[in-house]
Amino acid sequence: MTDRSIRLTRRTALAVGTAALAMPAVVRAQGEPIRLATLTPLTGAGGSYGPTMAKAAATVIEDVNKAGGVLGRRVQLISEDDQTNPEAGVRAARKLIDVDKVSAIMGTWASSVTTAVAPLCWESKTMLCTVSGADSITLLPHQGYLIRTQPNSTLQLTRLGAHVLSLGVKRVFQMIPQTPFTQSSISIMDATLKKGGAEQGSLIYDDKKPTYRTEVDQALRFNPDLIFAAGYTPDSVVLLKDIFRAGFKGKIIGMAYSINQKLIDQIGQAEVVEGVYTFAPSPAQGATAHERVKKIAGNDNPDPYTCQVYDHASMVLMAIAAAKDASGTAIRDNVRKISQGGGKTVDNAVDGIKAITAGEKVDYVGASGPCDFDDKGDIIDCKFRYEQIKANKRTLLKIA
Amino acid sequence: MSGWANYIVFMVATGGFYALLALSLNLIWGGAGMVNLGLAGFFALGAYASALLTVKLGAPILAGLAGALLVGAVGGYVVTMSTTRLRGDYLAIVTLGFAETIRLIANNEIWLTRGSDGVSGIPGPLKAELGSWFNAVYAAGMIGIVALVWFGLRRLDQSPYGRALRAVREDQQVAQVAGKRILRFKVEAFAISAAVAGLAGALYGHFNSYVAPDIFQPLITVYIFLAVAAGGVGRVSGAVLGAYLVVFFLESTRFAAAAIPGLSPVQHAAIREMLVGLALILVLRVRPQGILPERIPPAPRPASVT
Q: Which residue of B has its CA nearest to A45?
């Protein structure tokens, strides 16, 4: 008995001590909380990306709350599921806007969901930060209430085309499923390759087929030096196997969001993926924010969407601090003041808010890149990461 | 209008689209006994018809709605005429294929449908004038339209035509022997049902200002089957009740799942999906006839023969 009562006392003392230590932060961060939301695909086709994306935003907000919140207020994150479906996404967004009264929605993934949710956001003056890539999204009449951290197709493919040319190939065959960026992917690649004196053939496939033998046959008839496999992970697994079985000896390149470790594990046969090149938008080498996201995601190669949502949450919080106001309009008007235009370089929201409160100008450099936006809400420039698979491992070629 | 009130009227309007789809399914599944797994396809036909008429050709919204009804009906006619010999599971598979075909066409025929970008900027009736009251007025309009369609289909259901349709459902050979032209009944019922689904699609597009192939995944068909099964197959009022219950259920599980502490967002999402599955099982297990079971009015007594 005595033993037990002693232990209890110790535990109570510990609890009281911890509470006392935490007191100042808790006391400082009071009042009505600032509400932000993630709307990521937790189920459906995007379900493999959404959970870590939501976690990245939650971690940023947790860190900021620990450091005392923003404007002396706590930040509360509400995460909803868009079910990778525009109809369900709109219902979730309505709830976030009307019931939770959030000032920003972050992380919409599928282009169709973003396009469906965007009007709700600009009509209710809510900021929308997205990772969708379709060129049409930033052309919507969004009045500034939309920014995206994903480089648009034009920027990505011009760079990819230049890289393909630098590999010294003359005949390229692009195999791509029907997506919002399919047409631009084919036409931009075409233009870039032509300028460099190379040729492109292309084929649009159905991403739910169990085999791509006829598609691969058609590709090989073009006699390509390089096949550009531009699908998502599940269809790329099948496609790469079929390309290997067909005895293709040329080079293969794909997007790193689909040619990832998961794909390598699923294929489970080193010869199939040996020498495959991958390509992804990337932060500058050694960017500190990227190191943090690695820890959040729990692996060495966090997907670009997780990095981007980390940046969304950080930028929204810093914009609120800079505006001294937590409304969606305040975020819209201030997000470019903290993300670009020189000042103290910061890589996370806690340091950024501290510097802003101290009256300093900051320039956020995030986990996904420099995060500088043009008037339409597109990022102006970013680095790309070029890798090659060697013995089932992705090895870095260059970041440029 | 904002806050909770706006959220609720938005869901009332959304419930209206579900109710129209449920009425459509109830007519064809409950009435004529034809399983239509292609509901999302007819929903898409109407949505695209009205969206393209108003956005690309600048037609007024009413013309868009009329176009949606027409395209839906024609679609229904084509599907029944090409499947006249199919019943039960076989018809179900073909209609499912039809819906996927429509979605693939919407995805790939970019010159017409703008592909997977979808059609955005679809005009809403009096949207500028109504401002923040748009959702409320639209929801009221949806209730009116649902009531109108409910009234019409109920009349149809209780008329001799409805009885003949049920005879086709129960045993088409017997109906044929009794002198009913079963193909005509089936085609007409399917066309009306598809037109109602098309109308739902058009109204959905004008409300949300955006349609895209992703919206018309089989998911929505599953929700409507759940609605009709829960409300009561073959009962017109049951379909409307079931549709509103499904929307209420889908939305309330958001709050219910979020109330469980210590779970990650993805676990909340999984719980919601499990609850939907559980609801379906419970309905089929506990009340297979639905909340409002079908009522078959007794046939009128023949005039006494003297």
A: B214
Whether pLDDT at B297 is above 50: yes
Share of chain A above pLDDT 70, in %: 92
The closest alpha carbon to B148, from B188, B205, B196, belongs to B196
Residues B231 and B22: beta-carbon distance below 8 Å: yes
Residues of A in contact with B14 (CB under 8 A): 91
User: Average of pLDDT values for B37-55?
Assistant: 96
Nearest to A115 among B118, B266, B273 (CB): B118
State how far residue A272 is from chain B, nearest Cα, in angstroms.
30
Q: Which CATH class is domain A153-282+383-399?
A: alpha beta
- A372 forms beta bridges with none
Q: Is the CB of residue A77 less than 8 Å from the CB of residue A40?
A: no
Location of each CATH 3.40.50.2300 domain in chain A: 29-152+286-364, 153-282+383-399
ipTM: 0.90
Average pLDDT, chain A: 88
| Assigned CATH for A29-152+286-364 | 3.40.50.2300
Q: Do B264 and A87 touch (CB under 8 A)?
A: no
What lies within 8 Å, CB to CB, of B205 at 6+ separation is B47, B48, B50, B51, B119, B122, B211
Annotated domain spans of chain B: 3-215
pLDDT in tens, A93-134: 999 999 999 999 999 999 899 999 999 999 999 999 999 988
Choose the closest CB to A98 out of B3, B266, B272.
B3
Report yes or no: A29 and A98 within 8 Å, Cβ to Cβ.
no
Asked if B119 is an interface residue toward chain A (Cβ–Cβ < 8 A), one would say: no
Q: Exposed e or buried b for every residue in B80-110, given b needs 16+ CB within 10 A? A: beebeeeeeeebbebbbebbbebbebbbbee
